[in-house]
Specification:
The structure holds 2 protein chains of 2 kinds.
Chain A (H helix, E strand, L loop, with lengths): L2 H31 L2 E2 L6 E2 L7 H11 L3 H8 L1 H34 L5 H9 L6 H12 L4 H8 L13 H25 L3 H9 L4 H29 L3 H6 L7 H11 L3 H37 L1
Helix pairs in contact in A: 1-13, 3-13, 4-8, 4-10, 8-10, 9-10, 10-13, 12-13
Chain B lengths: L11 E10 L2 E11 L4 E5 L6 H9 L6 E6 L2 E2 L10 E4 L11 H6 L9 H14 L15 H13 L5 E5 L7 H18 L2 E6 L2 H7 L2 E6 L2 E6 L1 H6 L4 H7 L3 E7 L7 E6 L2 E6 L7 E6 L5 E2 L8 E11 L3 E8 L4 E7 L12 E5 L6 E4 L1
Parallel strand pairs in B: 3-8, 3-9, 6-7, 7-8
Antiparallel strand pairs in B: 1-2, 1-4, 4-5, 9-10, 11-12, 11-14, 12-13, 14-20, 15-19, 16-17, 16-19, 17-18
Helix pairs in contact in B: 3-4
The chains are: A mainly alpha, B alpha+beta.
Membrane topology (chain A): Multi-pass membrane protein
Subcellular location (chain A): Cell membrane
Protein name (chain A): Putrescine transport system permease protein
């Protein structure tokens, strides 16, 4: 194989992958989001008439409109769902950062013998189906479930707390399911920190707490940011957790999308919601990249 | 030159300290006293336990036995952040996310200084290490020598009575190292802080230290001023570590009045100073520059040899001389003021002055 062909393959394959599995499906979704629902197969109009020539294309393009987006903008349901999705994701990300940071810190400070075992323990849940693991939380959180049972046995509460089918249930589920995605990047950053830095802090009179807040945490911030992004993005579109643990009142975009698609069979509206979701998610990624670039530029600027 | 003895109240007192890592004994029953304001160098090859000893003093390692005292107060059980000693790390361990000034001032928290006092202290230290104008720079933007000075200023910020320095000049290139040695000594003299310096570089130890402690496999094998160690090494190991040395094997003769002994070697009898049981297998150690080469006929103990190599080094000639039995001796002599250099293949005489020869156990 010639070098040029190899280079072409190396560069072309990821591009082909992106085009085939991201760009094309997105184009299809985008097109459907501009269509109108119809009782037909497929359940939307217009469809492209491949034999119609230029005239056919003109008719097709004229039939597309922003009707679905107008509906999303006018109906408070979608706005509320979007806001509440962002709210749940933001709150859960904050909880994850607060719980994941000490977890990763403890792992990074554990002895070299224990570290691989602790990492394995974080990863082990992935070997069970995500759906089943979330389902198991129903048994824990339901009124007569393990958690309420234990709390009542301990005499801490008199009657079961309504955790299942509540926002609390959703937050517990999100925190549980996404903790590894927060812990692993944080652990990766913290375990690579030069141990001499913490020794230097201790040598200069800093106790463990001061050393953590002035040395470990600032240097682990890139890990916190990576973990936050890794959790925030999929949580905005999360469907299974709000559906199983949130009850019928929990409003999240993933659920709205699901019900438009499967219950109402309104593919065009569901597609418009999907596009909206994508925009909501791309936003923070772009902001994050911008901030990263600015920081790198600032660091380079200092170097000159 | 007599060894300056530590006064009765040492600054640092290490008593039979031992540290094991699994089956390995890194530091093996080391005892040592340090005078206030003294610069003490721990010298030895890598893995001899010198860095572990330094980390034991700093508190990063807990000893399995023994005690460490500073000014009479027992430090042994104190965690590092409560010990009134500071350390300059081999890698410098500067905080990469902080400016030079923030690095230097990091240790000032909790000393009860006002904001103004702390700022003044930082400014004074930055002046001391000649880094004015670099206060707001990050360590990554500094050169190796500048980083080294930030590390020194940071370690001095808490005004420790004792500063521990782990290979302080190891990361610098040769020319910068010699310049920095002088600077380090000047700062030390000005502040009067006691220094314990770990190094594997003999020249560096000689340039910096009031006293040198040689470590070998976890033990402190000899302590003294550089010259004592160089001229009167206690073992082959110390003799070789401090500089180039000729080692001639032989058998020790009987005790004689006057302290000198005769050692029977393949080169013939050699007069040397030292102790040992008559008949013991020993080596005679002679520094190359103490061999007297050339027209030394008539001196007692003059030996015959052939010059096999002579290298002109500007200020001296380094030569190799093959003796009658095949032993090759290395000599290093100052250039004769006039006259030709001896030629390779020429017969030469070699004399070993008795005060230059030292008996060491084989």
């Amino acid at each position: 194989m010639s070098g040029r062909l190899a280079r072409l393959l190396v560069r072309g394959l990821p591009l082909a992958w992106l085009v085939l599995f991201f760009l094309v499906p997105f184009a299809v979704t985008l097109k459907i989001s501009f269509s109108s629902p119809a009782t037909a197969q497929p359940p939307y109009l217009p469809v492209i008439d491949w034999q119609g020539g230029l005239e056919g294309w003109r008719e097709f393009l004229e039939a597309l409109d922003f009707q679905n987006y107008r509906m999303i903008a006018e109906d408070a349901l979608y706005r509320d769902a979007a806001l509440s999705s962002l709210g749940y994701a933001a709150l859960a990300t904050a909880i994850l950062a607060l719980t994941g940071t000490p977890t990763a810190y403890a792992m990074a400070r554990a002895s070299k013998r224990w570290q691989p075992i602790l990492v394995a323990l974080v990863i082990v849940p992935f070997w069970t189906s995500f759906l089943i693991r979330v389902y198991a939380w129903i048994a824990i959180l339901k009124p007569e479930g393990l958690l309420n049972g234990a709390l009542m046995k301990l005499g801490l509460i008199a009657s079961p707390l309504p955790i299942l089918d509540s926002p609390t249930g959703v937050l517990i589920g999100l925190t549980y399911a996404y903790l590894p995605f927060m812990v692993l990047p944080l652990y990766a950053v913290m375990s690579r920190l030069d141990p001499a830095l913490l020794e230097a802090a201790a040598d200069l009179g800093a106790g463990r707490a001061r050393a953590f807040f002035t040395v470990t945490l600032p240097l682990a911030l890139p890990g916190v940011a990576a973990g936050a992004l890794l959790c925030f993005i999929p949580m905005v579109g999360e469907f299974i957790i709000p559906d199983l643990l949130g009850g019928s009142d929990t409003l999240m975009l993933g659920r709205v999308l699901w019900s438009e698609f499967f219950s109402n069979r309104d593919w065009p509206l569901a597609s418009a919601v999907a596009v909206l979701l994508l925009i909501l998610i791309v936003g923070p990624v772009v902001l994050f990249r911008e901030a990263e670039l600015r920081r790198e530029e600032a660091a380079e600027g200092r170097g000159r | 030159m007599p060894a300056p003895l530590p006064p009765t109240a040492p600054l640092l007192g290490i008593e039979r300290i031992t540290k094991r890592f699994g089956p390995q004994t890194a530091v093996d029953g080391v005892s040592l006293d340090l005078a206030p304001g003294e610069v003490f160098c721990l010298l030895g090859p890598s893995g001899c336990g010198k860095s572990t000893l330094l980390r034991l003093i700093a508190g990063f390692e807990t000893p399995d036995a023994g005690a460490i005292r500073l000014d009479g107060a027992d430090l042994t059980a104190l965690p590092p952040h409560r010990r009134p000693v500071n350390m300059m790390f081999q890698s410098y361990a500067l905080f990469p996310h902080m400016s030079v000034a923030a690095n230097v001032g990091y240790g000032l928290k909790g000393l009860g200084l006002s904001r103004k006092q702390a700022a003044e202290r930082v400014a004074g230290l930055i002046k001391l290490v000649r880094l004015e104008g670099f206060e707001s720079r990050r360590p990554e933007t500094l050169s190796g020598g500048q980083r080294q000075r930030v590390a020194l200023a940071r370690a001095l910020a808490r005004e420790p009575k004792l500063l521990l320095l782990d290979e302080p000049l190891g990361a610098l290139d040769r020319t910068l190292r010699e310049e920095t040695q002088g600077e380090l000594r000047a700062i030390q003299r000005r502040l009067g802080t006691g220094f314990v310096v770990v190094t594997h570089d003999t020249q560096e130890a000689m340039a910096l230290a009031d006293r040198i402690g040689v470590m070998e496999r976890g033990r402190l094998v000899q302590v003294g001023p550089a010259r004592d160690l160089y001229e009167r090494p206690a073992s082959r190991f110390v003799a070789g570590l401090l500089g180039d040395v000729n080692l001639i094997e032989g058998r020790l003769g009987p005790d004689e009045p006057g302290g000198l002994r005769t050692v029977e070697t393949a080169l013939g009898p050699i007069r040397a100073s030292g102790e040992g049981a008559a008949g013991a297998a020993v080596v005679v150690a002679v520094r190359p520059e103490r061999l007297v080469v050339g027209g030394a006929d008539g001196l007692p103990g003059t030996l015959q040899g052939t010059l096999v190599e002579a290298t002109f080094l500007g200020d001296r000639i380094r030569s190799r001389i093959r003796m009658a039995d095949g032993t090759v001796l290395r000599a290093s002599a100052a250039l004769p003021a006039t006259g030709p250099m001896p030629g390779v293949g020429e017969a030469v005489t070699v004399a070993i002055p008795a005060d230059a020869a030292r008996v060491l156990s084989a």
